[in-house]
Amino acid sequence: MDAEVVLQEEDMEGSWTLLSLFSSFLMVFGGALPYIPQYQEIQRSSNTEGFSTRVCLVLLIANILRIFFWIGKQFELTLLLQSVVMILTMLAMLHLCCTVHSTNRVSTKQHRLTAKISGRNQAWFILGSSLQIHEAVLQALE
User: Fold this and answer.
1) CA distance 132 to 138
2) pLDDT digits (tens, 9 = 90+) for 30-68
3) Is the pTM of this model over 0.90?
4) Counting beta carbons within 10 angstroms of the beta carbon of residue 94, is it exposed (0 to 12), middle (13 to 18) or buried (19 or more)?
């Protein structure tokens, strides 16, 4: 009988260990999971409308402060790993936003350049067909 009780206790401990590991895993990655669809949507549409980079800033500061606090007074390792994962997530989101903004900015500049060429200096492109005239106009616009 004592052997059966010991085996049941070991099974219970194994179950609790598995449940503890699963909950720790969810705590570490659960905060970053909602950003996956948002990342994919921003990447697909090349539009950051509706996404606040200020929220990223606040979360970065909060998680960096949590890591600094952990250095002074160590707490559960799960919370430290959660901070590291959130910092990486926020950096990935900010990188994507900066990439999308710079891409949009470049396309806007190209659109303005095309508008200048087709508007103000359209006569040069109609009258002259040589490459030198085109290059001179482009250099004048820069």
Assistant:
1) 10
2) 999 999 999 999 999 999 888 888 999 999 999 999 999
3) no
4) middle
